[in-house]
Amino acid sequence: MKIPKLLILIPLLLSSALAVVAQKRPVEYVNTFLGTAPLTDPADIGFKPPWRVWAGLVFPGASVPNAMLQLSPITKFGSGAGYEYENNVIYAFAHTNKGHWNLCNIPMLPVSGDVNPEDFGSPFSHAKESAHPGYYQVYLDRYGINAELTSTLRTGFHRYTYNDNAQPKKLIVNLARSDERIRDWKIEQDGDNAFKGVQVASEKVYFYAVSNYKIKQIEMLKGEKAQLPVVDFAAGSGPVEIRIGLSFVSSDNAKENLQKELGNKSFDTVKAEASATWQALLSKIQVSGGTERQKELFYSCLYRSFLWPALRSDVNGDHVDEKGAVVKANFQYYTLPSLWDDYRNKLVLLGMISPDVTVDVIRSLIERGEKTGFIPTFFHGDHAAPFIAGSYLRGLRGYDVRSAYNLLLRNATVEGGTRPYIGEYMEKGFISDPDVANPVVETKGKAGVTKTLEYSYDDYSVALLAKELNDQPNYDMLMKRSQNYKHMFDPSTGLMRGRLDNGEWIKNFNPQYPYYEYMYREANAWESSFFAPHDTDGLIGLYKSKADFEQHLDSLFTIPWNPNYIAENINSFIGQYCQGNQPDHSFPFLYYFVGKPEKSQAILNTIMSRFYGMGEQGLALSGMDDAGEMSSWYVFTAIGLYPYSPADPRYIVSVPLFQTTTFRLNESKALTIVKKNAGERITGIKVGGKKLDGYFVEHRDLEAGKELVIATQ
């Protein structure tokens, strides 16, 4: 029997149509709760924890990329991001967030009926909670209120739907609380429907809010420790809508931000626009192949990579400078990046996907430097140097690179600024620590090993700019100093070891024991000793042979963690390697340099499959996300590219999770990464049809849209 061609085609067409319908958009893969749940299993952590392990410390609420405002629920003040998944009471919706035990400003909570100033939190359940990029929703069981949140760059939009419209509708504005110590606050009514004020913590955060309900009064309820402002609305039916603008300059600016950015848009319009903004950003990297879970982790991590730094400029161009003065600039002013963390990968990703934001972040750093004499850092090191150098070498312009260079050179040579103990470093070539008989995790010190290694890399980064700007004398000086990491190498142990002031080795040396700042910064010797991304061949040369170096790497990944060695922020191990903190995040790639990339790939695969989406709910990370660094590590590794030395405009190639990745670095051309076959060992790499010699691909080739083909078996 001959079957008509049309009957053959119909199933094929239906199958094709169903495939199109089933294809999810990148924004639909994002789970904003990833990183909010705890780690509890000692097998995941490496020890039995006496505290809640830092397993993400992120917020699930509404924000758009790199915004001033992050509108998110608070289940516990004083926690990393205010929200912990295991909690079951919501105390507020706050308007700023980072995930570093700070911010969480202007907390508000809708209520009904009488308010107890000592007990007003509402139970909730995850069954009645949902979120996606730019939107958060939860049902407040205590008050019978469905709360919805969405946002723009500088404004937030609350929609509260009451089950019982007859109940008095009220709004707690708990200005005495945030994740920081509150020094002062003020709130006042402004006309029939608006209220404004300020909350003073490390910064002054101003707000201007407008309700669709008339305001009868703002009550001040007296609590045991502080007054509690409660906005009392007039009777009415329908949802309560609160539109709020923020500013770090004034409440007038907050009002202007609100009027110009939100205006009279409906809640659903703002929600849709926020989702569209995220879809446009996330679509700059599109993947096919891989599992649905891998795509969920990938796009959730990509989303998390674009929430910090945060905008601080108002719509009129005003911002508060480093000296506390209000200034008007011709660029968008941003917060300080989380430089010790995110210079390693996230700021590179920011430059690739959001170059305009990155340029303004650099201009913000330069302004800080011009006002204070030094470009600041975050936490440790001087990592504005690799960030700015790497951005410049990747072609980002639009800022005064000469000014940036001069400031970074000052950072590298003048005591009393960004680099502590720089005088000792310049004089001796290393930074010492005291000899302590019985050091413990909290023993005070200079973190001399870590500083010496990091300053060496920072020197190299500034040297790259010196070369670009034809400053040969300082280039030579800085390149010589970039070898200072070698002064910390102890041949008898094959590890980087602390030195005393006189140059002798610190005697009480246990390479497995972790410290917060004694010899090492949040690490032990194993987690610190292989950091020389600018000179890995030189690092290997310190060992007897490549085989000896490889043996030490094997030990790094196989010596079991001692479960009696307990330190916050140091957890989730492969041997001594710690994925839960930043210092050793480039170490899995080191096997490439001894000709064993397949050993690197095995470790990379283990990290991606084991340390993301952990815990009972599959919502934990192996450690703090640290403003997107942990997430960006996954993004780069999942597509088979990693900025091994972020100051250098090139990437080490590994086996991607996905068969095809389309990465749009600019508007005109898109890079395509193709994985040939389903193997886990690289057999060849081609860039633009030409065989790649080695494993590093240049940024200029990616930007040109050349196809990167990674053959595997």
TrEMBL record:
GO biological process terms on file: carbohydrate metabolic process; glycoprotein catabolic process
Tagged with keyword Signal: yes
InterPro entries (UniProt xref): 6-hairpin_glycosidase_sf, GH-type_carb-bd, GH92_a_mannosidase_put, GH92_N, Glyco_hydro_92, PNGase
Signal peptide: 1-21
Domain Glycosyl hydrolase family 92 N-terminal: 29-247
The entry's keywords: Signal
Protein name: Alpha-1,2-mannosidase
